[in-house]
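Thread title: Can someone regenerate the structure for this chain?

I was given the following input by a collaborator and told the matching structure tokens would be attached. They weren't. Posting the sequence so someone can regenerate them.
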Amino acid sequence: MLCSPQSPGRSRTAWTAAVALGSALVLLSQAGAQQPTRFAEAATPPPQPTRSARFAEASARAQMPQEPPAGEAAAGTEASAALQPDGTSKTNPSGTPPAAGKAGDKKADEKKEDDKKKVNWAKVPPIFPRHREGWFTIREKGGGYYTLVDEIHGNYSEKAPRYQFGPRSLNSNPYYNYDFRYLEDPKNTDYDWSDAYKRIHFGPDGDFLFSTGGEVRDRYMNQLSGRGTGTNNFFNNFRVRSYGDLWYKDQFRVFAEFMYTDIYDNRLPPVGNDGSGPELQNGFVDAKVGDPFGGPLYVRVGRQELLYGSQRLLSPPDWANTRRTFQGAKAYWANDQWSLDAFWVQPVVTNLDQFDSVNNNQNLFGLWGQYRPREGTSFDFYYLGLAQANTTTNNGDIHTFGSRYCGDVDKHLLFDFEGGVQFGERGTRHALARFATAGLGWRFAEVPWVPHVWIYYDYASGDKDPTGRSGSNRTFNQLFGQRHNYLGYLDLVARQNIHDLNMQISATPTKWLSVIAQYHAFSLDSRRDALYIADGGVLRRDATGRSGTDVGDEIDLLADINLTKHTQLMVGYSKFFGGTFWRRTGNPNNVQLFYTQCSFKW
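Best answer:
Regenerated them for you:
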């Protein structure tokens, strides 16, 4: 019997059940691919005459004399007979048209009211433009084989499929933002077996809409000197997600997502994102308030994931086995060019042995706005407040003001600039910290594989006097952001007291394969402050500063393979080469990681 080291009483039953569920879904997908779906007939409409042929036929008919139907001819004869020589009617000598009847007016008004009540399901749910992450790429959308199975069977696609699972195994986008509205388009021909579980209309006049889906995923991790401890660690991260989404018109929404996560064979003490057992990941209610300034305004209350901007400060990171979530309320609004969110939430703390609950000692509140002058280019501006109590050193309020400008020029030059300042109180000291990111990239659109090359500089301030005897605390608080994607896949570095000069090269040899290579050069901002691990805890420190600032270098290699529309395989290798600071402050061994991940989504 294989049990989690952190939960001896938990048997492999959950694993076996999940694998059985995944196997059943794979068989279902294969069966769906072989059997006609409920959309099969709609997917192959009868051939239609060309536009020019229809125009010629209509012109020819217009020039031919037309005979009215028998009933109309009789009515016309009677009407002609009823006319007097001067052209007026015997029943209406004045010749003025009769006034419209009250019954007709009433029917017209009722029709207008009915039209107002109808829901344009093509706009439900309201999906606001997704924020571009750092290192963003612009993928080709032309014809090709978009999955490995399609290439094996010769299933060529004239354009990119519209399924929402994405071309990569990791996808931070919350399920409540997945966009299957294209299924409402009568001209849509992009169907899949899992569409049977999406956008199910029911109830009087079809006013209710229900969708469901989920994921089964497993990742094998092979670490040498895991977390720099010198201990080799081989383990599995396992996850199952499932959600239900119910709408009443565009007025009310109930969304619930359940998730089970666990870790097996781990030799090191677990960290918070390794597993949490069965949990409620999202559970909220939305209510529409109105449509001010040309966009819908909603209020959301309950447990919810938050994702904003580049995700450097707020994200539900998908690399982690658990995904970060919060509990509270927010209001959100958007139109074609502007969006604005206001929220107050408390972070949910993961617990492998009991149901996750909120941290009542932390309150996160803020405003996040975005202006989109054109497609692909955005300007973010935000305020984030974090109130903390009952901690050893971090009591007090931290306020962060920041902004970001990112986009592209003619889909060749890519840019991403972001920065912010923090102030407030931390323990008995004032806090004054800052962070900055600057990135430039180039998309080689005319080169095979369409490579993207990015060069970035990431900075987050550190404290010059960690003893607290003088000045302000200058260690930047990274809040609840994404670190894995930006500061190395080994998760040895946080956005605190760090300089990181890094670059990334990515390419797509085929539509179903993407490859990435990253390089990082890490150094401390303050030699007397700590090197912080990705979750914000202290990894290593030399309070004297004699170990210098050279942390080390890291390389990361990654390949993403789209096996089918629903199945992604990810393979990666990372290695950290310790610098002077690393070798003098703990185990000097370099850190290595090899991993494979397979996910099935529906």
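Confidence is low (pLDDT under 50) at residues 1-94.
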